[in-house]
Amino acid sequence: MTKDAEREERLRTQIVDAAAELFAERGYGGTRLPMVAERAGVSAHTVKRLTGGRAELFASVVSARARSQAADRLADAAGHPDRSPPMAVLLEAIGEIFADPERSWSPLELEAILRSHRNAEVRASESQRLRSRWVNVRTVTDQLRRSGGLEAGVDDDAFAHFALALSVGLAMVDPLVERRPTQREWNALMARIGGAVAPPDLFVQPHHPAPQPWRLRVEIPSGPGSLARLIRALNTLAVDVTASWVLSGTQDHRTIDLALTAPEQVTSSELIAAAMSAGRDARVTEGNPEDAEDLPTRVLDGAAELVTNPGSAPLAAAALIEADRFEVEPAAAGQDDTVGVLRLQWTPERHVVLHRDWAPFARAEKTRASALLRLAAAISSAQGDADALGWVEPIAGGVTVWIRLARPEDADAVAAMHERCSEHSRYQRYFTPVSEWRDVNLRRLTGGHRGATLVVMSEDGVIVALGNVFPDAPTGVRAAELAMIVEDAYHGRGIGTRLMRHMVEFAERLGFVEVVATVLADNSAMLRVLEAPGLSWERTMEAGVLSMRARLPVGEQDTADPAG
Q1: Which of 198-207, 304-313, 416-425 has the highest mean pLDDT?
Q2: Going by DSSP bridges, is the β-strand pair 479-486/538-542 parallel, antiparallel, or unpaired?
Q3: pTM
């Protein structure tokens, strides 16, 4: 390039830079060539000679300054059709435009589109720019058609036109809308539209290898067809579902766990968008090739390991329900159940606390892990370990009951027992009206806490009483709070007395120094039950409520804090 040519190019760049500033500040209508010349430090003649009229200069500014990530992605996808599934490309492009409209359609471009309605020169230059974008969208649409992801009745040009108009419209309305949906809500809607234009009998051609394993958990509506719709939405991204499990369900929704493989270019956001188009509360994490293994086989493999090594139960439980990490805690220490924490009783003195960050533990997982720990305890008992506790006790009426540690799956039976109890019995236990007892966390009542929970089962296998040994929060872990409820039909038959003795025994085994209880002063039956273990209670009363405290025999010799 000659020196004169280099000088001309520098001047042209200088002029375009100055014009870009003025168009941004004043808009197209408020910018004149003399103003550009003054800002650039050149003559108006030089501006016109190097860049043409205002329309040509505006087109040059838009071309030089307006870059679009979404447009670049579509252009790259159009040039490399085997790199990523077409629907994933479109979802990602529309998602990027929604997240940051100005990076895909700058105010300069939007003004050019508006100006083109009244200016033939602007319309000519902007039509050429839009043409290149339309061609890229049309090419990706054609790829979607050839991969089997577009219904025969959907016209390719109409679909491309819709996609382009949607992206422009997003950028136009974004500064004006008062209530903007979240990115996740928007992505789910776009995935729903993508599924709507797919063929009724969707079979995406395997042009894109799917080596990347993922795990997906999502709630879908209960009833026929909901799982098929979920898998269909995933299929539009060339995703292969290798295994599925139902983890929990209600009348309205059920939680589905899927093992997937997907093309490497499919992102977690796109997987969530597809899942959200068919359900709610979708969560994704990276998987591993073993995820697709048969679940019963995995359970049996873990059980076989427990036969020779019962002590591996915590590790086996964590592997079974795919916890991120776990620890074995003293029964009176550590963390209670939360959304991402699952606490299970293993032995009277030890609990297994499992953690998972990417998705909360489902009810079925709690039940599976608890059953595996019970299996380990049963194996230990068969080998002479006395920690697999349970007691058969006689009660009045010539029958027996079984007292044992509570399990996560007891929650429904405990709830049913509460329903059978009278309002008076529930009030004596919780000091709240009948309508509020459910506010007490059933998971906490059935074992997801520090301490211990015992249930009493009738000869028919029905839970008829519940006893809790909770660390007393105001005084740390030195004192245990004792509380129980017995079904009305079993009052006066000795269940409370026998249950209380075992609760005190547990408090001693867990290293507590004292026990406390809060009882309504007129609850004479509970007061007699508390006297049964032979403890010396100190009593204080306020507003008709007795606060009782007693030292345990173990505390007479050892007053150390069991927390260490």
Answers
A1: 416-425
A2: unpaired
A3: 0.62
Is 439 within 8 Å of 418 (Cβ atoms)? no
For residue 549, CA distances in Å to 7, 136, 333, 505, 529 come to 94, 78, 21, 16, 14
Distance CA 96, CA 14 (A): 31
Contact 418, 464 (CB under 8 A): no
> Mean pLDDT over all residues of the chain?
82
How many residues would you count in the chain? 564
Q: Are 94 and 166 in contact (CB under 8 A)?
A: yes
Tokens matching residue 471? 């660390």
Q: Is 403 helix (H, G, I), strand (E, B) or coil?
A: strand
Distance CA 140, CA 89 (A): 8
By the 10 Å C-beta count (0-12 exposed, 13-18 middle, 19+ buried), 464 is classed as buried
Query: How far from each other are the two terminal CA atoms of the chain, in whole angstroms?
Result: 81
Dihedral of the CA atoms 75, 79, 85, 86 (nearest 10)?
Answer: 50
Q: Give the closest residue to 365 by CA, choosing from 429, 306, 295, 303.
A: 295
Structure tokens at 465: 């009483």
Q: How far apart are CA 498 and CA 465, in angstroms?
A: 11
Q: Residue for token digits 């409370």?
A: 496
Q: Could you tell me the domains of the chain?
A: 3-65 (1.10.10.60), 69-180 (no CATH), 212-292 (3.30.70.260), 311-382 (no CATH), 391-557 (3.40.630.30)
Element (H, E) at 241: strand 240-249
Helix (H, G, I), strand (E, B) or coil at 100: coil
Q: What is the pLDDT of residues 368-423, one digit of tens each?
A: 898 888 888 888 777 655 544 678 888 998 888 888 888 888 888 998 999 999 99
- The strands making up 514-520's β-sheet, listed across from edge to edge, are 391-395, 399-405, 452-457, 463-471, 479-486, 514-520, 545-551, 538-542
Could you give the CA distance from residue 500 to residue 530 in angstroms, rounded to a whole number?
7
Q: How many CA atoms lie within 13 A of 99 on its CB side?
A: 13
Q: Are 92 and 187 in contact (CB under 8 A)?
A: no
Where does 152-238 have alpha helices with state H? 156-173, 183-196, 226-235
Distance in angstroms (rounded) separating the CA atoms of residues 133 and 71: 6
Contacts of 507 (CB under 8 A, 6+ apart): 469, 480, 482, 515, 552
DSSP 40-54: HTS-HHHHHHHH-SH
Residue of 430, 434, 458, 461 whose CA lies nearest to 444: 430
Side-chain-side CA neighbours of residue 328 (13 Å): 13
CA distance 396 to 418: 22
Cα–chain center distance at 94 = 24
Phi, psi of 104 (to 5 degrees): -110, -35
d(CA 418, CA 271): 42
